[in-house]
Amino acid sequence: MRSKVPKYVQIAEILKRRIANGNYMSQSFPGGPKLVAEFGVNYRTVRQAFQLLLDEGLLVRGENERLVQPGGAGRTPFKVAFVSSGYCCPADKWLLAVREAARKYRCMFCRVVFDTTDDAILYETLDGDFDLIFLSVGTPDGLLLDKIRQKKEKVVLLFADMSAEGIPFFDGIDNEACALIVRHLARRNCRKIDFFSVMQTPEFYTARRDVWEKTLKELNCTGEAYCVMGNVEEERFVQAHRLAAGFLKQGAFREADGVFCSDVEAAQGLLRAFADAGIRVPEEIQVASFGAPELAAMFIPSITVIRTPPLAPLAAELFEHFLGITPQPGRLRFNFDYRKFTEDELIMQGESTWKNEGGVP
């Protein structure tokens, strides 16, 4: 079906997005003939698109009437890469926060996607001319860790805290916030609170399991841990459903009042397994999880979760540090301290736990 939007408007919108992503910060803005060939239109259509960008101030006329970005001439761009596996979807909040900060500080931004940590593109990116690389690879080891150590002055690891090795770290809320969810369940008459995880890297579920275990002891509660390493070949919520169903057949969760899940995918699979087994949530057992409130709100029942505060201010701090605008010498950890927030700010109440304390509707 033909679009009702004029072609020159479509071209202008594409060019706006390219400008916002920093595509033309390290090269000249393309001239009319190049865009005519690229989009298969006539020169008049391209000129109309140019005029829209001129009217909005996204382009100005420089020497010899060439179109350039305001303030872009002679500027060496600060190049930023966001590197993650294909599992990190385009809507991922960390990706969006980094990309938005790159736009705010007029940096050139590039997303790099890999399939496995053996991929050559990981090493090529680390050896490339990027000034700042956000790297989501779990906890690296072997040759990849050696390469990251060599390049640590420009690498920021996501989610894996290796600040003790001098590698900067960017995450959301501290895993210690898991204690808030365990306490939330305990205040709703849960005395046996199990833990369920199907994480694909051990450092995530280990850290959250440790907080769950410590908090149970503080509350004089009990619980069993059901942790399985996920398979990257299969969607995590599908694995969680299959594994939770298997645990239920073996008698797991039957004596629990509540379950704390390491992430929303685990909670989603567990809820489906409970529904299949005729176990009502929250009437017979309550379920809560860490993170992803946008997804948690979409399920039936919606899931009570710990949510991460908006990442934009934290990403801005990180960029200002690396750009030298507001340097923070010695700072390696960029994440939120949960103690600076109220419980209401961090817990999103869903239908999977009782709304009132005391464990009643």
UniProtKB/TrEMBL annotation:
**Record key words, sorted:** DNA-binding, Transcription, Transcription regulation
Pfam families registered for this protein in UniProt:
GntR, Peripla_BP_3
Entry's Gene3D superfamilies?
Answer: 3.40.50.2300, Winged helix-like DNA-binding domain superfamily/Winged helix DNA-binding domain
One GO MF term: DNA-binding transcription factor activity
- Which InterPro entries does the UniProt record give? LacI/GalR-like_sensor, Peripla_BP_I, Tscrpt_reg_HTH_GntR, WH-like_DNA-bd_sf, WH_DNA-bd_sf
All copies of domain HTH gntR-type, residue ranges:
8-61
The record's SUPFAM superfamilies line, in alphabetical order, gives: Periplasmic binding protein-like I, Winged helix' DNA-binding domain
Span of domain Transcriptional regulator LacI/GalR-like sensor? 182-310
* Name under which the protein is recorded: Substrate-binding domain-containing protein
Source species: Victivallis vadensis
